[in-house]
Backbone:
């Protein structure tokens, strides 16, 4: 965020706030948040692109496991299961509708790794949105495209979860509200820790401790 602020101010923008960072210059308005999402009514390439090499060269910050986990989801025990409130950068609410109606997906590689790990840890069928039918699926129209509300086996849900880029033969998408209910109530701490350590350039944080209570 500091690098982005410096870049925008160097080319005449006035900035305020930190997360989100708001910048303005004449009639151009730019909004940047710490998840990496930049938005504007005009093309951002000239304003933003020169700052990207410096951002990508930054070393990952080491943070407590819980802080890193909270960037991707929050959890709440519910009886024999756990309720997850996921935090994808774009795959939710109004963006979700636009992406499904155009046949696109904006789930980043790091998000896909984390969420597929969570899905594969479940022992029960998981309600998701698919572009293929399974037994008990209900047709769902989004724009001119046909999808299905489906309940999938954990391994199938994890393996077909779509990320950004070309579609697979069979694709699964997170719910619009980004809420998942999984069984059992304990999250896969070891698997998540391994995933967090291997996220690479898609995440600028790494876990500080090897073990921490979820």
Residues:
């Amino acid at each position: 965020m500091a690098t982005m602020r410096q870049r925008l101010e160097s080319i005449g923008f006035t900035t305020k706030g930190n997360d989100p960072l708001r910048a303005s210059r004449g009639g151009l308005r730019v909004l940047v948040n710490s998840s990496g999402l930049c938005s504007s009514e005009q093309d951002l390439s000239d304003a933003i692109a020169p700052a990207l090499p410096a951002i990508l060269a930054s070393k990952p910050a080491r943070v407590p496991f819980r802080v890193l986990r909270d960037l991707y989801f929050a959890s709440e025990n519910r009886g024999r299961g756990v309720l997850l409130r996921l935090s994808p950068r774009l795959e939710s609410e109004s963006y979700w509708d636009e992406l499904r109606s155009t046949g696109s997906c904006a789930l980043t590689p790091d998000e896909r790794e984390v969420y597929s790990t969570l899905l594969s840890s479940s022992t029960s069928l998981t309600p998701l949105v698919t572009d293929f039918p399974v037994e008990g699926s209900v047709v769902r129209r989004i724009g001119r495209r046909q999808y299905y509300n489906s309940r999938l086996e954990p391994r199938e849900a994890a393996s077909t979860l779509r990320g950004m880029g070309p579609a697979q033969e069979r694709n699964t998408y997170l719910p619009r509200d980004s809420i998942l209910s999984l069984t059992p109530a304990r999250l896969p701490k070891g698997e998540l820790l391994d995933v967090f350590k291997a996220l690479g350039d898609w995440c600028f944080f790494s876990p500080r401790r090897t073990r921490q209570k979820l």
Remarks:
- The chain has two domains: 2-56, 62-207.
